[in-house]
Amino acid sequence: MALLAEQRMDRILEELSHQESVSVAYLSKVIGVSEATVRRDLTELAQRGKLNKVHGGALPVKETFFSDEPTMEVKRQLHTPEKKRIAQYAAGLIRDDDVVFLDAGSTVMHMADYIRAPRATFVTNSIECLQRLPRLGLRTYVLGGVLKPGTLAIIGGEAMEGLKRYNFTKVFLGTNGISLGQGFTTPDPEEAMVKALAAARSQQTWVLADSSKFDIVTAAVMLSLERAEIITDRLRDTRYLDHTSVKEV
Fold first, then answer.
1. Tell me: the pLDDT tens digits for 139-152?
2. Paired sense of beta strands 183-186 and 177-179, if any
3. Within a 10 A sphere around the Cβ of 71, how many other Cβ atoms?
4. Which pTM does this prediction carry?
5. SS3 content of the chain, % helix, strand, coil (to 5)
6. What are the residues whose beta carbons fall under 8 Å from the beta carbon of 149, sequence distance 6 or more?
7. pLDDT higher than 70, residue 70
8. Among the CATH numbers 3.60.150.10, 3.40.50.1360, 3.90.640.10, 2.40.30.110, which is that of 65-248?
9. May I ask the CATH architecture of the domain 5-61?
């Protein structure tokens, strides 16, 4: 019986998961379809971001590893329209009876421009959020600890102890990378621990990330994909939906 298009593409990805590369001729033989059909399927899969199409076949998508972290000054200039859309949607999830943790992500900081829950309570380890939230008349608590110069995040043992005094209804986190294999990652292990503990003390956790963060891996794992929902501008690889909920805005 002939395979449907989605079944063929699943078979292609399965073959590619076991090999460094696959050829059109090989796929045509093992799947039992014409080479023209294989080429069309490879084109579709490449457009979805699930493989890299090359002459005569395909290569797997490789995750990119970053060891360095841009400063907040640099982050402010990257993907700003997308970050603002994501932040606006995220801010709309907050209600007056919420106790909310906002971390030091460059997308998270934009949420302050859109919050319409004047009686919610906020806790943050972000100097950027600390400067914005009280100006709106929002009740704001800040964690103590070590100030990280590059991202203006408060981290360290004192910040961790401070988090243990709170129970959150909602947590919003930034991330440097999202990958199928490694989950949500950030370059700084201490910052990763703060993010992980905040999520562990919350009823609901969202990670705010523009589409450039996908298939990126950095040094420290903060959460597995199953531990948080994602708000993004665009999801190119639908395999992430097998692990968590993703909202495109």
1. 999 999 999 988 89
2. antiparallel
3. 12
4. 0.76
5. 40, 25, 35
6. none
7. no
8. 3.40.50.1360
9. Orthogonal Bundle (1.10)
